[in-house]
Amino acid sequence: MKKVEGTLLVILILSLILNLFLVALTDVLILMSSILLSFFYFLFAYLLLNGRTLRNLFQPGLKRSRILESALAGVSFSYGIMGLLFTWLHLPGGGTTLTIGMLLFVPVFVFSGFRYRASRDPFYKRVQGRTLFFGVLGGLLLLLPEGSIRNFKYRDYPAYLEAVKEAEANPSDKALWEKVDREAQKIGKRAAVSSQKQDAK
Fold this sequence. Notes:
- By secondary structure, this protein is mainly α.
- Helix content is 80%, strand content 0%.
- Helix 4 packs antiparallel against helix 5.
C-alpha cells in the first residue's frame, strides 16, 4: 500500500512542478494521479493507516472507533486532494472545494495530535503526517493571490492572460471564451514548434 501511495505522490508532485513550465501532458498526469490518489485514500485508508494489507484485511483486533477514524481520515484526504486538483487546474468551484478540504483537515489534525500524545499509537502519527502534508500544500494554494499560478505558467503569453482576464470579467460572453480558446491553441502550436526545434538540434 505504501509503495502505491508513494508512487502516486511522486507522479503528482513531479507533474505539478513540470506543469509550471508548461511541459506537455502534465495536465493529464495531474488529473490522473490526483483522481487515483483520491480514490486510493477513499478506499484503502483503513489498510494504509493501520499498517494492514489485503491479506489480513479482515483480521480481528481493531475497534469500531478505529475503523471510523480511518474512514473519516480517508474521506478528508480524498476531498482535500480533489480541492487541490480543482484549484491547480482552474476548474469551476476549485476555491470552494479546497476550502472545504482544509476545514476537514483541521479537526482531523487536532484530534489525531491529541490522541497520539495520549497513546503514542503510530496510527495517529500516520494520520498527522499526511494531514500536515496536504494541509500545507492546500494552505499555500489558498494564500496565493488568485490567478498567480496561471500568471506564472503563462508569463510568456500575455495575450492569453489578457484574454482569460476579459473572459472571467464577463463569464457569459461566449465570444471572449472563444478568444481564450484561440490563444490557448496558439500556445500549443508554439510549444510544438519549439519541441521540434529542440529535436532537430
